[in-house]
Design brief:
Layout lengths: L2 E8 L3 H16 L7 H20 L6 E8 L5 E7 L20 H8 L2 E6 L5 E7 L5 E2 L6 E2 L1
Antiparallel strand pairs: 1-2, 2-3, 3-5, 4-5, 6-7
Helix pairs in contact: 1-2, 2-3
């Protein structure tokens, strides 16, 4: 792990935009260009995962946690934790008329891998990994690393 930033946000619709802002800010301070493909993917994933908590989280839950980690291999790990034990379900692909059900499909398309980690009585963490589109290379090696 190179750098990690975690913060708590109120379970409120305005937190989705603030999550995007904070994640973009952290990635920029870690040297990621604001408009590169990886930054855009990580910001969009943070937005979708935060929106899922706001929409589907427990009614009495006041806050949720979002963490973004820049890893040594050049990838980013994004995680959103809430107090609901309910596992998200990837449903059939929504049609053009569906107003809901797109969030996890977007996560599934943007992340190299994603999953859910139960936190016992304290809910769950939904996580995703985004790898840099241009893998890092180590001098002297033919294969890309990461």
């Amino acid at each position: 792990m190179l750098r990690r930033e975690a913060f708590r946000l109120p379970r409120h619709p305005a937190s989705v935009g603030f999550a995007r802002y904070r994640v973009r800010q952290h990635l920029a301070s870690w040297g990621h260009a604001s408009n590169d493909e990886m930054t855009e993917r990580v910001v969009l994933l943070a937005s979708e995962l935060a929106a899922n908590v706001v929409r589907h989280g427990p009614i009495l839950e006041r806050e949720f946690e979002l963490a973004v980690t820049a890893r040594a291999d050049g990838s980013c790990f994004i995680a959103v934790s809430d107090e609901s034990p309910a596992q998200p379900v990837l449903h059939d692909v929504p049609t053009g008329d569906d107003e809901k059900g797109r969030g996890l499909h977007l996560v599934d398309q943007l992340a190299q891998t994603w999953g859910v980690r139960p936190r016992g009585r304290h809910g769950k963490t939904v996580w995703a990994v985004v790898r840099h589109p241009r893998p890092h290379t180590v001098p002297g090696l033919q294969k890309p690393c990461g």
